[in-house]
Specification:
The complex is a heterodimer.
Chain A (H helix, E strand, L loop, with lengths): L8 E4 L5 E6 L11 E6 L6 E4 L13 E6 L2 E6 L8 E8 L6 E3 L3 E5 L1
Parallel strand pairs in A: 1-9
Antiparallel strand pairs in A: 2-6, 3-4, 3-7, 5-6, 7-8, 7-9
Chain B lengths: L2 E6 L2 E3 L4 E8 L7 E7 L6 E7 L4 E3 L7 E6 L4 E6 L8 E9 L9 E5 L3 E6 L1
Classes of the chains: A mainly beta, B mainly beta.
């Protein structure tokens, strides 16, 4: 059960857009449109930002959007704000035997 | 509003058993799966295992031999036990509500999380 691959860090200036990729395999990301994304500020619990690949929970800004192509899912944040600076993790369902696999996390820095 | 409140011992010695409990307040307990997830200091998230109200469990294959997750539906609580701990088990442990994947291709996410419990294993 290998972790999903994310870039270690990304950065952007306020107002810009950034995209974080999450690469898995045909056994997880590629098989299911069931990727979720979590935002984690230092010392806090993760917060659900995107589920089922593209959906936003109530209360999450529409500046956050998700997509998928093949074995790679992506999280895009538009109109970057200082409060978006955090770690971001992707997660995919991987079937009944393995169940869940997370990405290694991406640190977003707002310059 | 659903809240998860977790507790347990924060300092263990090598070879001891980690024990944590998570209580669910304010919502349905039976309609979901309930998971434990951990995060070593400075590292990413790792799913440990899950349970539903009937006691059906699934575990991360890499931890399966040492993990037991149980449920107490009378108290809307679920618990984690991890045996024979080592320094590699030092982490923040979270409990989380899981929306189970469906045959229709929906679900499969963790929408509510506990506050986290830092567990340190020392020799």
């Amino acid at each position: 059960q290998s972790a999903l691959t994310q870039p270690a860090s990304v950065s952007g200036s306020p107002g810009q857009s950034i995209t974080i990729s999450c690469t898995g395999t045909s056994s997880d990301v590629g098989s299911y449109n069931l990727v979720s994304w979590y935002q984690q500020h230092p010392g806090k619990a993760p917060k659900l930002m995107i589920y089922e690949g593209v959906k936003r929970p109530s209360g999450v800004s529409n500046r956050f959007s998700g997509s998928k192509s093949g074995n790679t899912a992506s999280l895009t944040i538009s109109g970057l704000q200082a409060e978006d600076e955090a770690d971001y993790y992707c997660c995919s369902y991987a079937g009944s035997s393995t169940s869940w696999v997370f990405g290694g996390g991406t640190k977003l820095t707002v310059l | 509003q659903v809240q998860l409140q977790q507790w347990g011992a924060g300092l263990l010695k090598t070879s001891e058993t980690l024990s944590l409990t998570c209580a669910v307040y304010g919502g349905s307990f039976s309609g979901y799966y309930w998971s434990w997830i951990r995060q070593p200091p400075g590292k990413g998230l790792e799913w440990i295992g899950e349970i539903n109200h009937s006691g059906s469990t699934n575990y991360n294959p890499s931890l399966k031999s040492r993990v037991t997750i149980s449920v107490d539906t009378s108290k809307n609580q679920f618990s984690l036990k991890l045996s024979s701990v080592t320094a590699a088990d030092t982490a923040v442990y979270y409990c989380a509500r899981q929306v189970r994947p469906t045959a229709a291709g929906t679900g499969a996410y963790f929408d509510i999380w506990g506050q986290g419990t830092m567990v340190t294993v020392s020799s």
